[in-house]
Amino acid sequence: MFIIELIYKADLARIDAHMRDHMRFINAHYASGHFVVSGRKVPRDGGIIVAVGGDRSAVEAIARQDPFVTLGLADVRVIEFRASQRAKDIQARIDGES
């Protein structure tokens, strides 16, 4: 599994101006099965995507295609980890029901 971290380099007005393209990118990779969960960082200085993929280079290639990255609005960092445990009630925790 992978954590993709986006770190904004532009002001939020420029980020928001390209949010529609970014969301198309995000939704395409949910549909492809690569993205598992994503959202804004708090404070809003970037975003986080949890992803799955064959290998690090494949996920890095996907991450570099994000419009925020290709337009120079954000830097990207990919962290690989081996998921060895998970909460039994993971969905409830994600939904905020815990």
Q: Could you explain the architecture of this structure?
A:
By secondary structure, the chain is an alpha+beta fold. The chain has one domain (2-94): Alpha-Beta Plaits (2-Layer Sandwich), CATH 3.30.70. It has helices at 12-17, 19-31, 56-64, 67-70, 90-94, and strands at 2-8, 35-40, 46-51, 74-80. The chain is globular, with a radius of gyration of 14 Å. It starts with a strand and ends with a helix.
Brief write-up:
This protein is of the alpha+beta class and 98 residues long. Helices cover 38% and strands 27% of the residues. It has a four-stranded antiparallel sheet with strand order 2-3-1-4.
Name a few traits of the molecule.
Alpha-Beta Plaits, alpha+beta, 5 helices, 98 residues, globular, four-stranded antiparallel beta sheet
Terminal residue distance: 24 Å
Helix share bin? 25-40%
CATH class identity: Alpha Beta
Unreliable stretches: none
Write the layout of secondary structure elements.
Blueprint lengths: L1 E7 L3 H6 L1 H13 L3 E6 L5 E6 L4 H9 L2 H4 L3 E7 L9 H5 L4
Antiparallel strand pairs: 1-3, 1-4, 2-3
